[in-house]
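Reminder: ligand-aware prediction takes two inputs, not one.
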Amino acid sequence: MAKGSQLFLCVLALVAATTAAADLPGFIERYGRTFWTEGSEFLFNGFNAYWLMGDAASPYSNGSKVTALFEEAAAAGLTVCRTWAFYDGYSNDSLQVTPGVYHEQVFKGLDFVIAEARKKGIRLILSLVNNYKDYGGRPQYVDWARRAGLAVPSDDDFYTHDAWVQEMATFLKSIDRKHLLGVGLEGFYGSSTPDKVKLYNPNAVQIGVDFIEVHKVNEIDYATVHAYPDFWLKGQSEVNKTEFVKQWLWNHWKDSMEVLGKPFMLGEFGKTKKDPGYSEQIRNDFYSTVYDSIYSISKDGHKTFTGGLLWQLFVKGMESYYDGFEIILSQDASATALILNQSKKMGELAGAA
Ligand SMILES: *[C@@H]1O[C@H](CO)[C@@H](O)[C@H](O)[C@H]1NC(C)=O
Ligand SMILES: *[C@@H]1O[C@H](CO)[C@@H](O)[C@H](O)[C@H]1NC(C)=O
Ligand SMILES: *[C@@H]1O[C@H](CO)[C@@H](O)[C@H](O)[C@H]1NC(C)=O
Ligand SMILES: *[C@@H]1O[C@H](CO)[C@@H](O)[C@H](O)[C@H]1NC(C)=O
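Here is what comes back for the chain with 2-acetamido-2-deoxy-beta-D-glucopyranose:
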């Protein structure tokens, strides 16, 4: 991994109901390049909300924000939420305080999030570790390793790309064969495909791990990328950013089909208000482009582009969390209309012959 890279690597589990009960939905399963559940293909429109476990576990919270978020999301037809099931480090609010030692209160917060999501028919993708330093992440694991006397010369030596993914994936599948596993990376091409680095990486920059190599790991069930043209093509025109995103999605979907043979999803995308060119119209146009790409590739591609997760939703009264990408459905009629439209289209496509 490149030093100082902005890769966001995490192991993901597409979680369904965890106990058997008549009225609960079944697990999502993978058949070849598609997701299935209960005899039909599964497609979705979804969102990120990293903050749920922390809010639910906070002594200053009664869980009302988590409940409100799932209510608003379900009303917009969103059926998958990606959220943090990690917080590593010595802190009052962390989940894992030291290796293998957990705060029970924070686990209870996570339980609450899972229970509330289930009530609203929303499936979860639980991220299990961060590459960035936020919420502990890779730097925290490196620190723990060093304190335990292991020689870790640089953060990057903690794991090496596909070897680390392989080790983690093998372990997770040994304790749980029912949930699907993904790797939450940005999607940059790497040294296994130098031609694609030049052609398709923004400005031919190589950041993070190799999209192709990492997703070849057999236990990884689906391929995923993120799309942040505001960061990757800083200063470029909206037209250029839009064209880039279309190509980015198309190329990675094609590789997922032809090289990897796995279902594909867009794990994060968004438009930041901090970009100098930002306007609500530009954001909406960007969302439309992304949604149209997902839908049309999925339609022509036999439902193999499974869905997209916008970054990110909050509920009202959370101004201190805002990162520029925030969408508050109850205060944003134009975003809600766009999202609802896409939710309906993906739902109809899933059920179509
Ligand atoms: C939960 O807290 C919110 C304020 O954060 C408050 O408006 C609401 O009434 C509380 N709900 C319950 C059931 O206590
Ligand atoms: C963390 O917990 C300790 C012990 O309960 C308490 O004294 C301290 O104020 C807490 N710190 C924060 C930042 O909440
Ligand atoms: C848009 O992309 C073209 C072709 O890559 C490049 O020549 C041009 O400078 C870009 N324009 C802007 C404003 O970013
Ligand atoms: C909803 O989708 C339809 C059909 O694709 C499109 O014509 C319409 O403009 C969309 N509306 C919104 C608000 O996105």
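DSSP finds eleven helices and 13 strands in the chain. The chain has one domain: 11-351. We will return to this case in the review session.
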